[in-house]
Fold this sequence. Notes:
The chain crosses the membrane at residues 12-29. By secondary structure, the protein is an all-alpha fold. It has helices spanning 2-7, 11-29.
Amino acid sequence: QCVEDNSSPTKLPSHLLIITLVTLALMAVR
């Protein structure tokens, strides 16, 4: 799986986007 991450740099921004969405959701809940 680690190798796939290295081969697919596009997965990095996707992860950041998910984190941002989660953060916004948490803030909305509060």
